[in-house]
Design brief:
single chain; 0% strand; 2 domains; mainly alpha
Length: 183
């Protein structure tokens, strides 16, 4: 739904006319484009605009997929461990097998954390910076949200950045919770 609104909003901003032509940068602002070629410039700029939103959330989505895989593996390990306990709570299985499986999962989490933490940190910082800029613009430049379309645009980007921030935070919280439940 968000991607659909993003694309429809983009069509409005790119094809509305002169008012939003600054979004065609470097066309119009640095490169003079004749009126005959403005439609071509708008289509070209819109085609470059469309993949931005999905690519921002691709990193978050891949992190969530990895978190789900580890979450399900730790949960499976926990269930099998509880099945080896008898009624009195005495362990009846092979402890070294569970220890090796837990160590293997913990090492895999450590390796994945090595390359996922940069994406999460960058996403977290960028979303916080965007939220600060949006709120700053709304407070100190109220004329920028004077029309309904402008206010809706600010709200959409605020919602998208809060959503991305929650994506970044939830991945770490979920995997940390599962690792702590097993230990």
């Amino acid at each position: 739904m968000g991607a659909f609104l993003y694309m429809v909003g983009g069509i409005y901003f790119y094809f509305d006319g002169i008012r939003y032509d600054f979004m065609l940068t470097p066309f119009v602002t640095h490169i003079d484009v004749s009126e005959d070629n403005m439609t071509t410039a708008r289509v070209f700029a819109y085609v470059l605009y469309v993949p931005v939103f999905p690519s921002v959330f691709f990193s978050h989505a891949m992190t969530e997929v990895l978190v789900y895989v580890f979450y399900s593996q730790f949960k499976k390990l926990k269930r099998s461990f509880h099945r080896t306990l008898d009624e009195q709570g005495k362990f009846t299985g092979d402890l070294s097998l569970f220890r090796r499986r837990h160590q293997t999962l913990s090492r895999a989490v450590s390796k994945v954390d090595g390359f996922v933490k940069f994406g999460n940190m960058a996403g977290f910082v960028c979303h916080i910076a965007n939220i600060i800029l949006i709120i700053y613009s709304c407070i100190f430049h109220p004329q920028s949200t004077s029309s309904f379309i402008a206010a809706a645009t600010y709200f959409f980007w605020l919602f998208a950045n809060v959503h991305g921030l929650l994506f970044s935070a939830s991945a770490g919280v979920i995997i940390n919770h599962m690792v702590r439940m097993i230990c």
